[in-house]
Design goal:
By secondary structure, the chain is α/β, with parallel strands linked by helices. The protein has nine helices and 13 strands. Helix 1 (49-66) crosses helix 2 and helix 4 crosses helix 5.
């Protein structure tokens, strides 16, 4: 990382060693007494907790240096190290935006039966500057989540089956390979197409594979030649996805169209009736307000909220315009039409 320029990457995804310190213990499955795969790799072993903390502070400091002020910092860990990572992230000057719980829907059981099954890991999402204008693709995530606001608990399978890379002997190549679905959420949530994502612990290349799939660029740092070769082959086989089918333009970035503009353009008119989902009817006034027989005059948003007896409501999602034929057209569809006209005029200019 020391060879990278300051403020040169848009996001960092770090899956550092967890410092599990399992030593030579072998865990056996109780049903058939076969050995379970555990993390005993050399890269996960540190002489002491102090050495691990020193290592953590060094790579975090470099991440903060190369990350743009509005960039995204993602770190994942387990109960073994996430508390140290969280403290080190804050000490390094990052501002934590969320902690995400990756709920493993198919976790490895606790074979010894001495503790709860460890069925989750924690991701920390942070930004270098507390007041920074970081990227958060809210609408894309909402679409990704079946139209519901994305929560901070992500239910995703651990990496198994064909996705799990194998070595020349047919054994698991990397002991902590993360599922692509996990990285898809990370990348879709906090980066844009064309952004550069740094993974300082590249491993089997999951970050690079998903970055290529989603139209992002990446930098991967890895010391194992075996992992590098596998990651390259894996990434070469990835086909880019059609982002138009995945990503949604943020509403706050769309061209603004006011209700009165629809009237000025002749798409709505004074005296026309708007109808709500339950049949409630209002009339458009000359100044772009809505007139209700009992509730008086108010904007499209305030009137929708009054009728539903709630504090606030998005009127664009509530009202439909009644045509002369009696047909109802959502006013948001009319707004979208007006927005396209403004976009075309802007391009022509």
């Amino acid at each position: 990382m020391k060879n990278l320029p300051d403020a040169s990457v848009d996001a960092v995804f770090a899956d550092p060693p967890y410092n599990l310190q399992l030593g030579g213990k072998t865990l056996y499955r109780p049903e058939d007494q076969t050995a379970a795969r555990a993390v005993r790799d050399e890269w996960d072993n540190f002489e002491s907790a102090a050495e691990y903390e020193k290592f953590t502070k060094l790579w975090l400091a470099e991440c903060r240096r190369v990350l743009k002020p509005n960039g995204a910092m993602w770190v994942i860990g387990s109960y073994h190290n996430i508390f140290k990572l969280g403290a080190a992230i804050q000490d390094a000057g990052f501002w934590i935006l969320n902690d995400i719980i990756w709920v493993k829907t198919n976790p490895m059981p606790n074979f010894r039966g001495t503790r709860f099954t460890n069925a989750h890991e924690t991701l920390l999402w942070a930004t270098p500057v507390k007041t920074g204008k970081y990227t958060f693709n809210y609408d894309t995530l909402k679409k990704f989540n079946g139209g519901k606001q994305m929560r901070s608990d992500w239910h995703i399978d651990i990496c198994l089956g064909a996705e799990r890379l194998k070595d020349a002997d047919g054994k698991t190549l990397h002991s902590t390979q993360k599922p692509m679905d996990l990285l898809r959420r990370v990348i879709l949530s906090s980066t844009r197409a064309g952004d550069v994502i740094l993974d300082p612990f590249f491993g089997s290349g999951t970050t690079g594979a998903v970055a290529k799939e989603l139209g992002r660029n990446f930098i991967g740092i890895e010391q194992s030649a075996e992992y590098i070769a596998a990651a390259r082959a894996r990434i070469d086989a990835v086909m880019p996805a059609d982002l138009s089918e995945i990503e949604v333009a943020a509403k706050r970035e769309e061209i603004k169209v006011a209700f009165k503009e629809l009237m000025d353009a002749g798409l709505l008119r004074a005296g026309q009736t708007l109808v709500g989902p339950k049949g409630d009817r209002v009339m458009i006034t000359q100044d772009g307000q809505l007139q209700h027989t009992l509730l008086g005059r108010a904007s499209i948003h305030v009137m929708a909220a009054k009728i539903q007896r709630c504090a606030a409501f998005n009127g664009w999602d509530y009202w439909s315009a009644e045509k002369a034929s009696g047909a109802l057209v959502p006013i948001d569809d009319i707004r979208k039409y007006a927005r396209e006209i403004k976009r075309d005029m802007k391009k022509a200019a």
